[in-house]
Amino acid sequence: MSLADSRPRPVVPARGRPRSEAVERAIVEGVVRLLEEGVPLAELSIERVARTAGVGKATIYRRWSGKEELFVDVVRAAEPPDPELPGTGLRDDLVVLLESLRQRGLASRSSAILHNVYAQMKSSPRLWAAYHASVIAPRRVLALEVLRRARDNGELRPDVDLELANDMFVGPMLVRSVMRPDAELPDGLAERIVDTVLEGLRPVSSTASSH
To answer: pTM for the whole thing?
Structure first.
């Protein structure tokens, strides 16, 4: 079974006309099939993808502005979906966000294609910029909003640097997922990271009252 078979259909931009799920899936499957055959991203032209998917180039361009946008949607379809935050408190939201990072790390390790695509994207400035703008940056904005809301309602100290705090939460998971591919990503790791960092970021009064 190919990578795209078990993943949800990617979200593609509306182009002012009805979209065909079957056509979009065929295009995504075409890209995945070429990747499975070992074709480098640099050699995946729209023309080659169209030929593999059995559609015309115009059909692809009606749905994606170019191959960077198409490849980003293919990667998003292969990754675990972004989570919905419970909104029940800072700790709960952060645990869900970090657990999503852990799941993406596990997916990258278990999928040779996904791991290879990540590596190739980083060597392509345009493709990496497209992925960063549409996937990574919005995730960071969401995390910063969670922290900002927590600071405003007193769950964090008022002097907390939100950018730094976000790096403190996300950093350990990224180190284990990306920089230490041999490191374990066990169940419960998200909770352990969140609880460890929160211990130092909560208002002094709330930590003192808990003893």
So the answer is: 0.80
Nearest one of 2, 1, 4 to 74, comparing CA atoms: 4
Dist CA 182 CA 100 (whole Å): 19
State both tokens at 195: 């609880």
pLDDT tens, position by position, 121-173: 988 899 999 999 999 999 999 999 999 999 999 999 999 999 999 999 999 99
* Residue 120, phi then psi, degrees to nearest 5: -70, -35
Residue type, 131: Y
Closest by Cα among 83, 142, 78 to 112: 78
Sequential DSSP letters for the chain: --GGGGSPPPP----SS---HHHHHHHHHHHHHHHHTT--GGG--HHHHHHHHTS-HHHHHTT-SSHHHHHHHHHHHHSPPPPPP--S-HHHHHHHHHHHHHHHHHHHHH-HHHHHHHHHHHT-HHHHHHHIIIIIHHHHHHHHHHHHHHHHTTSS-TT--HHHHHHHHHHHHHIIIII-TTS---TTHHHHHHHHHHHHHS-HHHHHHT-
**Segment 172-209, tens digit of pLDDT:** 999 998 889 889 999 999 999 999 999 989 887 654 44
